[in-house]
Amino acid sequence: MLRTVAVCLGIFLSSIGAHAQLEQLEKRMGMGNASGLTDSKVASGLKEALKVGAENSVKITGKTDGYFRNEAIKILMPSNLRPLEKGLRALGFGPKIDDFVLSMNRSAEAAAPAAKKIFTDAILEMSFDDARKILSGGDTAATDYFKHKTTDRLTTAFRPFVEKTMSENGVMKQYKGLTEQYQSIPFAKSDSFDVNKYVVEKALDGLFYELADQERQIRKNPAARTTSLLKEVFGESRK
User: Fold this and answer.
1) Which residues contact 235 (CB under 8 A, 6 or more apart)?
2) CB 52 within 8 A of CB 226
3) At 52, is the secondary structure helix, strand, or coil?
4) What is the pLDDT of residue 212?
5) What mean pLDDT is predicted for residues 24-46?
6) Are residues 171 and 100 in contact, defined by beta-carbon separation less than 8 angstroms?
7) How many CA atoms lie within 13 A of 6 on its CB side?
8) pTM reported for the whole predicted model
9) DSSP secondary structure string, 163-213?
């Protein structure tokens, strides 16, 4: 599969005029002509592989229960607020805690679709150096590229969605009420906490977790190549 990605990236670079760089890449990788597929088809295969992985990760996370019912990425109470959660549950406030956790996950689910365009832009911005790092990297090298290129933009894009959804669901009001209930207990203390920032960070963690899983599947599992183009390009170049 590394050979496949190398071929695809090489053809993609040549299609935008990087002929000298392509020759360097082929020499370093010890590659000759790969599969007999047309240049345009191989280039399209690469773009589609990256696009499919990115879109699938957004589809998985950006729907109702995309975070909440996914134990791998579900947003829980932060570790520094676990004493608050434990104390309030002991006092019978478990349902309110559960509503608060649900609302955090709903906010992440509302924000996730905003990643689609940002991922698409990152694919278009891929440079030769980016390609070389992906080639020399492991099974999640493309995810690492996306993470490096898009984290700041995703944080900026996700924040308004999270704040809006948290406000609509009354999350901040719930959080304030929970902390006030806890602080009314003698000797209890809870520190101030930026809930919106926490939800944005955990939403990105979950998105990149799913993106990495999609990348592994496309690299290794023929069943994950869900279009005829992916099957033709990735299947042919493995022969």
Assistant:
1) 222, 225
2) yes
3) helix
4) 94
5) 48
6) yes
7) 21
8) 0.73
9) HHHHHHTTHHHHHHHHHHHHHTSTT-------HHHHHHHHHHHHHHHHHHH
User: Which pLDDT band holds residue 155 (cuts at 50, 70, 90)?
Assistant: very high
Domain boundaries, the chain: 50-224
Look at phi and psi of residue 30 and say left if phi exceeds 0, alpha if psi is from -120 to 50, else beta.
Answer: left
Contact 39, 47 (CB under 8 A): no
> pLDDT at residue 72 above 90?
yes
Q: How many residues does the chain have?
A: 239
Q: Which residues contact 76 (CB under 8 A, 6 or more apart)?
A: 101
Q: With beta carbons less than 8 A apart as the criterion, state whether 180 and 191 touch.
A: no
Task: Kindly state the tokens that stand for 6.
Answer: 């190398």
Written as one letter, the residue type at 201 is E
Which of 177, 230, 169, 235 has the alpha carbon at shortest distance from 199?
169
- Distance of alpha carbon 48 from alpha carbon 62, whole angstroms: 20
For helices 141-168 and 171-183, the axis angle rounded to 10 degrees is: 80
